[in-house]
Design brief:
single chain; alpha+beta; 2 helices; 32% helix; elongated
């Protein structure tokens, strides 16, 4: 397995000038400076993008890497649900199924495809339909 990193980003500079003054008095030359307030707001934003590429050389490494990511996402979903941190109005936010269940289902589909559903045959039914 080979891992490489890439980093890039965008920079945004925003400058806003503002002036507040007392009507008419702020417009008087020289003396109007006493009745006027000038301000400048500078905002700088950096967006950094980090990409980590992974070259996977065999199916066993692929299954392991996929399972690891899948379990991490599922654990984070469960953690947020336990804490009540849902982004939807409903508390019935679904959580991904266990990885092993999906892996067994995938193996069943692959076995079916190698048998009755060979090349040129119609696709296997989805969810028993």
């Amino acid at each position: 397995m080979t891992v490489a990193w890439w980093c890039g980003g965008l920079i945004k500079d925003d400058v806003q000038d503002a002036q507040q003054k007392v009507p008419f008095l702020g417009d008087i030359p020289y003396l109007g400076r006493l009745f006027r307030s000038d301000g400048e707001k500078v905002t700088k934003q950096n967006l950094m993008v980090f990409i980590r590429t992974t070259i996977i050389r065999d199916n066993a490494a692929l299954v392991g890497a996929s399972a690891e990511k899948y379990r991490y996402i599922r654990d984070q979903q469960a953690l947020h649900k336990d804490k009540g941190l849902t982004y939807l109005d409903s508390a019935d936010v679904p959580i991904l199924d266990e990885w092993e269940d999906d892996l067994k289902q995938l193996q069943t589909i692959q076995a079916d495809e190698s048998g009755a559903y060979g090349p040129g045959a119609p696709a296997p039914p989805v969810d028993g339909r």
